[in-house]
Amino acid sequence: MWIEEDTGRVVKTELQVGGTMSMIRVTTQFVFDDELGISVPAVMEDMYPRTSGGEFRGKATYGKFRRFEVKTEETIEKP
Predict the structure, then answer these.
(1) What gap in Å lies between CA 13 and CA 30, rounded to an integer?
(2) Which residue range is the domain that position 16 belongs to?
(3) Cα(22)–Cα(47) distance, rounded to whole angstroms?
(4) Fewest CB atoms within 10 Å of the CB: 7, 23, 30, 65?
(5) Within a domain: residue 77?
């Protein structure tokens, strides 16, 4: 994990699984969203080795984050 020293915000995470020849890696970069007031994932990149040699790579980008809210109300009627 990469964390901003001044704020404690997560900037980047990386997960590595496997050995040298079969390493799977997933890296996520975060940005601070001023409207939500939290860090959100911006880019996730992953890499998977192929058994026939080479590797498979993927990249996902994220945006348009929204806050979802749920409101519930309960009324108990007296007998």
Answers:
(1) 8
(2) 2-61
(3) 10
(4) 7
(5) no
